[in-house]
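User: Can you recover a sequence for this backbone? Please restate the input before giving your answer.

Assistant: Of course. Working from this structure:
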């Protein structure tokens, strides 16, 4: 029986037709997903001018016979959906029967496919079948879509720049490769290799193909499970972060999805280890019973909802926190900075260029020798998760180090047998204050002190109204506050954890948080107060410290839960290894006595 079934009319109408072919990336998506459905283990995407001139997808999947090959271009044909319920399952990838028909209507298509031993060639021009004949007997399918929108000039104008088109195709292919490490993908544009994965099933190797060696070395494997979910993946060390959330990839049952709550949970778990407005690189592979999820299918994106969200969020937070809170996170001063990525990911062309004859669409011709795939040996070390491990939980996360001096009253210079450290005085002090304040604020009975000289604070009438509404926030913090004349309050007691110098200024700052924020949760408010106060009461630059002061600060910092970052996520300490120093002075490899 023919594999392609004609979809029930009702079902076809459920899917918005016009949205399928919008841009080059949507064409690539349709074609590649067909290849995945055909069971391909190797999929090659070859573009000319970001796909505007040509998009070619070559796979080694099961292919089609002549009848299916022709039927594939008729509206509402699909081989994947049996009934409506299937739409709500994540078991199949493609589902829009009209996709190929829509693409063929606005371009020139050449399809070469072979299921058994007779190949078929179908040529279509603007939706009209021009030729059906016998073709190559290469197993699999090769489809070439050229001159997209040639007969719809208005659509053509709508296309973004070549750069934008290529960026979105690259982004799509990257995510697809992450969700299918067992498929070998190649993406090329104008003979430049953009992405190549080896199909070995190793997710870390896919990460390396996309982000390069430096980032890959800083990826930590994570895994966890509970009654409903099983999760595996990788997260970046907190020092690796990007300006966009686009590098936080969630895969559910093999398909890349979007879920803002998951992203938020991951980002929150990194709180105070990195700046809040920067985002980590993560790949989370979630396996779940399809009955737990609700998928909102739209041709260009996949939004997903989980009926058991709480346990999923708890599991993810725990996985991230446990991994980043038990390792040494002092960034090395001389590690090459990764290329900063802008919101639109720039495709990188550093990999070698492969020339191929684009007229012949045979997979063998662009077969890439395995030697060419440079897999850094160090990778296996990182994935084993040993390098950063702290053997003894009792041991402090930060190694012992000894101050030797102070630069500009701002940076402490320290040393130990491994090398030299620079510590930002303000950031270090801020972290110590922050943890102390947070601990004090978290106690069930916060101690308070009555003030010898109560402080009156004058407000504008507007500020006064907002503050009066939120006075409980101050009382919860154990301030004793009373109304005092027109638009003024008097503070008679303050929590003991609050340092007594600049008390008025501190109280004013806390009140300003309330007035500015207007609406927030207690946790967010306490967090803000702790962060602001820790900064306010940390030493400023140009401070004189004795050696003893410095030693005490270092010990204080080493006792912190996270000694590596200030509460804003900036590093407290950077490390120059002995080797880095030798390299810096060109001593390595030379006779160091010279
Ligand atoms: Zn600060
Ligand atoms: Zn800070």
């Amino acid at each position: 029986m023919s594999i392609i079934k004609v979809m029930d009319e009702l079902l076809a109408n459920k899917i918005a037709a016009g949205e399928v072919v919008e841009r080059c990336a949507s064409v690539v998506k349709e074609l590649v997903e067909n290849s995945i459905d055909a069971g391909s283990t190797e999929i090659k995407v070859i573009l000319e001018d970001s796909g505007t001139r040509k998009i070619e997808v070559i796979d080694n999947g099961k292919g089609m016979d002549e009848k299916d090959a022709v039927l594939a271009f008729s509206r509402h044909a699909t081989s994947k959906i049996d009934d409506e319920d299937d739409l709500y399952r994540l078991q199949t990838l493609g589902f829009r029967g009209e996709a190929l028909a829509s693409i063929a209507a606005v371009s020139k298509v050449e399809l070469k496919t072979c299921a058994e031993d007779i190949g078929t060639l179908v040529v279509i021009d603007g939706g009209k079948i021009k030729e059906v004949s016998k073709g190559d007997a290469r197993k699999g399918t090769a489809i070439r879509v050229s001159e997209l929108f040639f007969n719809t000039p208005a659509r053509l104008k709508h296309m973004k720049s070549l750069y934008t088109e290529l960026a979105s195709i690259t982004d799509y292919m990257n995510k697809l490769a992450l969700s299918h490490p067992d498929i070998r993908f190649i993406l090329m544009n104008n003979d430049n290799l953009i992405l190549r994965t080896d199909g070995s099933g190793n997710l870390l190797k896919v990460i390396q193909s996309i982000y390069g060696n430096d980032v890959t070395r800083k990826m930590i494997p994570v895994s966890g499970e509970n009654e409903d979910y099983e999760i595996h993946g990788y997260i970046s060390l907190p020092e690796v972060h990007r300006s966009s959330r686009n590098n936080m990839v969630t895969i559910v049952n093999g398909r890349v999805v979007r879920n803002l709550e998951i992203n938020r949970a991951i980002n929150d778990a990194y709180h105070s280890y990195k700046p809040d407005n920067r985002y980590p690189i993560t790949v989370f592979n979630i396996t779940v019973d399809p009955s737990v999820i609700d998928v909102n299918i739209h041709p260009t994106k996949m939004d997903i909802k989980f009926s058991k969200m709480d346990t999923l969020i708890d599991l993810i937070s725990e996985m991230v926190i446990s991994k980043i809170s038990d390792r040494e996170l002092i960034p090395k001063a001389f590690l090459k900075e990764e290329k900063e990525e802008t919101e639109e990911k720039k495709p990188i062309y550093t990999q070698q260029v492969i020339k191929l004859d684009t007229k012949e669409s045979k997979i063998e011709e662009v077969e890439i020798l395995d030697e060419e795939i440079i897999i850094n040996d160090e990778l296996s070390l990182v994935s084993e998760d040993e390098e950063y491990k702290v053997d003894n939980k009792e041991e402090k996360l930060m190694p012992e180090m000894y101050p030797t001096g102070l630069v500009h009253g701002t940076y402490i210079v320290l040393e130990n047998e491994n090398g030299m450290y620079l510590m930002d005085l303000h950031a270090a002090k801020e972290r110590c204050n922050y943890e102390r304040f947070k601990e004090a604020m978290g106690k069930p009975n916060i101690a308070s002190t009555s003030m010898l000289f109560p402080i009156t604070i004058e407000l504008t009438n507007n500020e006064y109204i907002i503050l009066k509404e939120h006075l409980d926030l101050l009382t919860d913090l154990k301030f004793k506050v009373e109304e005092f004349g027109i638009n003024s309050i008097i503070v008679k007691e303050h929590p003991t954890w609050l340092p007594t110098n600049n008390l008025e200024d501190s109280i004013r700052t806390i009140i300003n948080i309330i007035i500015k924020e207007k609406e927030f949760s207690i946790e967010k408010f306490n967090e803000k107060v702790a962060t602001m106060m820790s900064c306010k009461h940390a030493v400023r630059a140009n401070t004189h410290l004795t050696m003893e002061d410095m030693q005490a600060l270092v010990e204080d910092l080493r006792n912190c839960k996270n000694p590596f970052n200030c509460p804003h996520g900036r590093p407290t300490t950077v490390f120059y290894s002995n080797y880095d120093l030798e390299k810096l002075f060109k001593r390595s490899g030379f006779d160091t006595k010279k």
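That completes the design. The domain at 160-183+194-336+375-395 is CATH 3.30.230.10 (Ribosomal Protein S5; domain 2).
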